[in-house]
Amino acid sequence: MPKGLVIIPTYNEVENIAQVIKLTLDLPEQFDILVVDDNSTDGTREILEQMSAENPRIHTIFRSKKLGLGTAYIVGFKYAFKHNFQYVFEMDADLSHDPKDLTRFVSALKEHDFVVGSRYVKGVSVINWPMSRLLLSYFANLYARFVTGVPIKDLTSGFVGYRTEILKKIDLDRIKTDGYGFQIEIKYKLYRQGFRFSEIPIIFIERRSGHSKMSKGIIWQAFWLVWKLGIFGIFSK
Ligand SMILES: Nc1nc2c(ncn2[C@@H]2O[C@H](COP(=O)(O)OP(=O)(O)O)[C@@H](O)[C@H]2O)c(=O)[nH]1
Ligand SMILES: [Mg+2]
């Protein structure tokens, strides 16, 4: 069975982290998990220290301050290179993504280079978002697709699976975006390199516990990035 690493970034996810790890470990694929924690102050770190000491499939990287989702994933990808995982996955800690969907991701990765868990392939499959947030996300995705020309309906999705080798083909250290911008930029770069993707439907359920860490700054960064990719991306890969 190919080895898969599920990267879970955390910043203050004490109510969610133990459960998301347990649900992921219980899957038949026998995934390893890497949690990249950014100096959580709510007890997340202590739970991780205990769980990783008890189970060799749970790995941790503790960073000294909140350095953002983008670099958390880049650190995780490099960990996957170093430890020879064939597949690597991005998944949120807050249970908005159902770990069970990873099984379908693995099947899709047999035929494709990367797979995007998508809220917008079968209409809209988001639960418990206020209409304002849903509209923002939906139209931001339409806009990003239109301007960048990348035919992925959920470009901002953070539930993604990759064949690890394709991530070695992009210069990760040049990616400076965070949050939604990071999600758009990495998909854009892989698509422009000609890697084959599949977009598969997922149901996204808004977190029940803890708080969203996304900010207006991250949304604006994604907004400008889309133009940068759309205009300058024509000339470069
Ligand atoms: N390591 C790390 N994780 C983060 C950071 N910001 C957010 N996260 C994690 O990224 C995931 C998605 O964040 P969330 O706030 O739920 O974003 P939303 O779903 O778009 O509202 C969660 O697992 C967060 O704990 C960060 O700066 N560093
Ligand atoms: Mg969330």
From TrEMBL:
<feature type="domain" description="Glycosyltransferase 2-like">
    <location>
        <begin position="6"/>
        <end position="170"/>
    </location>
</feature>
<feature type="transmembrane region" description="Helical">
    <location>
        <begin position="217"/>
        <end position="235"/>
    </location>
</feature>
<dbReference type="Pfam" id="PF00535">
    <property type="entry name" value="Glycos_transf_2"/>
</dbReference>
<keyword id="KW-0808">Transferase</keyword>
<dbReference type="InterPro" id="IPR029044">
    <property type="entry name" value="Nucleotide-diphossugar_trans"/>
</dbReference>
<dbReference type="GO" id="GO:0004582">
    <property type="term" value="F:dolichyl-phosphate beta-D-mannosyltransferase activity"/>
</dbReference>
<protein>
    <submittedName>
        <fullName>Polyprenol monophosphomannose synthase</fullName>
    </submittedName>
</protein>
<dbReference type="GO" id="GO:0009247">
    <property type="term" value="P:glycolipid biosynthetic process"/>
</dbReference>
<dbReference type="InterPro" id="IPR039528">
    <property type="entry name" value="DPM1-like"/>
</dbReference>
<comment type="similarity">
    <text>Belongs to the glycosyltransferase 2 family.</text>
</comment>
<keyword id="KW-0328">Glycosyltransferase</keyword>
<keyword id="KW-0812">Transmembrane</keyword>
<keyword id="KW-0472">Membrane</keyword>
<dbReference type="GO" id="GO:0016020">
    <property type="term" value="C:membrane"/>
</dbReference>
<dbReference type="InterPro" id="IPR001173">
    <property type="entry name" value="Glyco_trans_2-like"/>
</dbReference>
<keyword id="KW-1133">Transmembrane helix</keyword>
